[in-house]
Amino acid sequence: MLDFVRPNILRMRGYEPGEQPQEGSVIKLNTNENPYPPSPRVLEALRQAIHGDRLRKYPDPQGRQFRETAARIFDVPPEAILIANGSDDALTIITRALVPENGEVCFPSPSYPLYETLAAIQGAACHILRFTAEGDLPAETVPRRVHLTYIPNPNSPTGTVVPRGRLQGWPTPLVIDEAYADFAEENYLHLPLKNERVIVTRSLSKSYSLAGIRFGFAVACPELTRQLYKVKDSYNCDALSLIAATAAIEDQEHMRQNVARLRATRQRVSVHLRQLGFLVPESHANFVWCVHRAHPARWLYEQLKARGILVRYLRYPETEGLRITIGTDAEMDRLLDELRRIV
Amino acid sequence: MLDFVRPNILRMRGYEPGEQPQEGSVIKLNTNENPYPPSPRVLEALRQAIHGDRLRKYPDPQGRQFRETAARIFDVPPEAILIANGSDDALTIITRALVPENGEVCFPSPSYPLYETLAAIQGAACHILRFTAEGDLPAETVPRRVHLTYIPNPNSPTGTVVPRGRLQGWPTPLVIDEAYADFAEENYLHLPLKNERVIVTRSLSKSYSLAGIRFGFAVACPELTRQLYKVKDSYNCDALSLIAATAAIEDQEHMRQNVARLRATRQRVSVHLRQLGFLVPESHANFVWCVHRAHPARWLYEQLKARGILVRYLRYPETEGLRITIGTDAEMDRLLDELRRIV
Questions:
Q1: Mutation for testing the B interface, residue in A231, A255, A259 having most B CBs under 10 Å
Q2: Is B116 helix (H, G, I), strand (E, B) or coil?
Q3: Is the overall model pTM greater than 0.95, yes or no?
Q4: Per-10-residue mean pLDDT for chain B, 343 residues long?
Q5: Could you tell me which chain B residue has the CA closest to the CA of A235?
Q6: What CA–CA distance (Å, rounded) separates B248 from A20?
Q7: How far is CA A184 from the centre of its chain?
Q8: What domains are there in chain B, each with its CATH number?
């Protein structure tokens, strides 16, 4: 039965997104959502966009208005920008454009499980890199035959960044997944314009508080972007997402204020978590990676869940731990209170 | 340069969507949009959904609420329903799940150019079927090695349907693209539950007037649907689209009224077009396919465009013609008036 489905698909377990309880009473610190609402300009732009004539018509398949706005704000040419239905869509498009069946991809572990899923769907093999104790990646061990390396920077679940300069001169085509870059001190958004083998992906889900609308983008050299446009679904971004995304990036001030708040909370929470016996690497993202010295991560996850706090339990071949999203100060105080009782 | 991009991608021309002029003065009959607005219940549901807490959180990756509503309305199990970011996304997911690189797909011509694009992206070969004069497809000529056949029914650009019973017992795995089925007399939505090698895709762009929100779905046997969920991006449908789609299918009455209006207009316009010298096959969709006995299609397209009416000029190896979307009665009267002057 189902022998007409590709064997690589039948073999896959499939990516499991974090739990999304649809009721509201739980404190949700498991999927790196921003606890603060998006810019009021986003809500206003959406409200104005909801009329029948907008909805019955196809959106602009090129996303010109977003691209021109993004070009101005991020100082890259509009022709370098790929619009995407979330940065997952950008990663999917890039994989389909660069990685053949029986090809090979490379990514670090522990990291974002989607890279392995994309490789499995494409029918490609995986070369897995281990982070050094300093959070560096051994570029010299990457086989030249690799069609694409994915490096999330900052990384999830660890929140760490690779040392400055590591990503320049990477030995294979490289996508730098900057979903969390707005929470870090530096980024590589302009590197693709100097190196055509580098692509940077961005998400509006985290720093812009727009996980619900699914919007992300990629920056690549214009000729490569043109190739990626061939692979994307023509109308991959809907009319409302394009409007919301454009309004969101236009309000950099709102985004930066939320990011600053979350970074301050992250700093404070990291200190407390360490006092509670957790190993917490310095995070550059909107979450912290916590491995307790005494208690198993799954047990802690279950204890917290029973107390109405949802964090992400993640297990990798080499480690397991809790990835805890930075919420509001009140939410994090609740978390710390409960943890004090548990550990 | 760009030698790291897959050769099948570099070779592709890329699908060209119909022109989407962003200003409003033109009569737009080129992309099969519905001229009537979506259900007021869609607009109301969207208005209520626009608040910060909804937008900052990820949507339900399973789309449970939509699936349960669709299951009730279309009388299929919720486990049989795949949610998709437009039916193009469903077709993409199905292709990636079933068609390996160097595989082979089959589709009719003239038809929806996306099938060839999807084959090119996947690196698969195409076996092309020609419609008989009666609009039938020669199933007996399809090689058994074909991994997937795409049959749009009703077909675009011709608007025709294959004879009853043709799609049962199709010799290869089959996706019936029912983007236009709401405008036809019959459909195959329940066939996948009897035949696991058949998948049906649906779009909310046309009959539900929601091209702007990008939502479609597929019906397949539950075990196959489970495989397709592995291939889709986790969050392929955004929170607002899911809400709009659910509200839209709940208002079947609104959809059916618009469909009835468009079918009446289609009938009337077809008669007039034939009187003007066009060959117009009986259409079962929200457009008509027009080949003029005397005037070349591209010239007619340009004449109409110069008069502020945008129709779709389409050229295939075996034919060329105009695909004219059914608009409002006033729009179609304007079209007929201009055509009377032109031909």
A1: A231
A2: helix
A3: yes
A4: 93 77 82 97 97 94 97 98 98 98 97 96 97 93 97 97 94 98 98 98 98 98 97 97 98 98 98 98 98 98 97 93 98 98 95
A5: B214
A6: 24
A7: 13
A8: 7-37+253-342 (3.90.1150.10), 40-250 (3.40.640.10)
Q: How many CB atoms lie within 10 A of CB B272?
A: 16
> Scanning every residue of chain B, which has its alpha carbon at the shortest distance from the alpha carbon of A9?
B97
What is the DSSP-derived secondary structure letter of residue A281?
Answer: P
State the Cα–Cα distance between residues B167 and B162, nearest whole angstrom.
8
CA Rg value for chain B: 20
ipTM for the complex shown: 0.96
Phi, psi angle pair for B175, to nearest 5°: -110, 125
Matching residue, tokens 């292709």: B95
| Cα A132 to Cα B203: distance, rounded to the nearest angstrom | 48
Contacts of B7 (CB under 8 A, 6+ apart): none
Specify the residue for token string 């208002």.
B251
Walk along chain A (343 residues) in steps of 10 and give the mean pLDDT of each run. Answer: 93 77 82 97 97 94 97 98 98 98 97 96 97 93 97 97 94 98 98 98 98 98 97 97 98 98 98 98 98 98 97 93 98 98 95
- Give me the phi and psi of B289, to 5 degrees please: -105, 125
**Cα A162 to the center of its chain, rounded Å:** 16
Q: Which among A227, A236, A238 has CB closest to B5?
A: A227
A52 min Cα distance to partner chain B (Å): 5
Burial class, B343, CB count within 10 angstroms (exposed 0-12 / middle 13-18 / buried 19+): middle
